Amino acid sequence: MLNASGWPRRLQAAVLVAAVLVAAAALLSMLAANPVLAQAWPSRTITAIIPFAAGNANDIVGRIVLDQASKQVRQTIVIENRPGGGTTIGVTAVARAAPDGYTMLVHSSSFSASYSLHKSLPYDTFKDFAAVVPLGFQPMVLVVAASKPWKTLGDLVAEAKAKPGVLNFASAGHGAASHLAAERFRISAGFQAQHIPFKGPVEALTEVMTGRVDFYFLPIAPALNLIGQGKVRALAVSTSKRAALLPNVPTTAEAGLKGAAYVFWNGLFFPAKTPSEIVNKLHAETTKALAVASVQERLAKIGQEPLPMSPSQFETYFHADVRDTAKLMAAAGGKPG
Questions:
Q1: How much is the pLDDT for 107?
Q2: 172-198 in b/e burial notation, b at 16+ Cβ within 10 A?
């Protein structure tokens, strides 16, 4: 008997069953391929894209950890610095890369800020990346020129409140960690100040040392020598606990400021849809690298502290940080450009 399409019913049924079996076989093949792919990964050179210039704090941390990870997986990991576009050039390259585990992104808390700094982005911050593993965090330290009268954070806040909008602060650029840490501190303390963005930390530090800029939050490592030489004075660190390299410097919380803590983190990301087996394998190898004594020693020298998380925990943390940073930028009056 023929149906409305003109096909014999038995033949149509046989074709339908065959189609279902082919689809099922294809699905099973895909599911089976992921463990095999992960087992073979990596079988060739991996590219790690860092959206900052060489020598940046994020670059230094990434190179230390990935050098060890490269030895463990017995494959070369090539570092490519692709700065520009407020980090969007390098980030976009990763978002558009094949999700095969051979292109990764080494980024920081600045990744969270990009979402708020641009009216539109060539990628979806929430959907185009698979968070893999944090590389840790670096406490930020608030410094002032040795010639300034402020001996404590309370002294600085008192003068800032007495002279609304008169004091200024430096950053390594709009939306940089140094900018976000300062804004969180300023808003928490409840005073107005002028933001002066510079092209990088060297220029910013120079202006602080001369006294032309009043205060500056920056990662601990580049500030240590200047603090030791007495050229700048450290008033507080941005984290919830004291920094190992500056044990005598109080936290902003100890100075009575609630909500002023800021975490400058670094981490690894893959393009979205990278097989979870590969994500988990890179997580395991990176965690192993972070536990190596020589790696820990090198990271400790630059003030890097551990921030252990699973891939899912890191993704949740990252997405929450993006939203939290958006609120901070809005409160600071930041407008997308």
A1: 98
A2: bbebbbbbbbbbbbbbbbebebebeeb
57-73 and 293-301 are packed helices; what angle lies between their axes, rounded to 10 degrees? Answer: 170
Taking every pair of Cα atoms in the chain, the longest distance, rounded to a whole number of angstroms, is: 99
Q: Which single residue is written with the structure tokens 């930390």?
A: 201
CB 70 within 8 A of CB 104: no
Question: For residue 304, what are its two tokens?
Answer: 């890097």
Tell me the C-alpha distance between 61 and 166, whole Å: 36
Two domains, one topology: 43-137+264-331 and 140-237:
yes
First-to-last alpha carbon distance for the chain, in angstroms, is 68
pLDDT at 175: 87
Confidence of residue 180 (pLDDT cuts 50, 70, 90): very high
The pair phi, psi for residue 153, each rounded to 5°, is -65, -35
What does the pLDDT read at residue 13?
46
Give the start-to-end residue ranges of the domains of the chain. Answer: 43-137+264-331, 140-237
Domain over 140-237 is classified CATH 3.40.50.1360: no
Fold of the domain spanning 43-137+264-331: D-Maltodextrin-Binding Protein; domain 2 (3.40.190)
pTM for this structure? 0.85
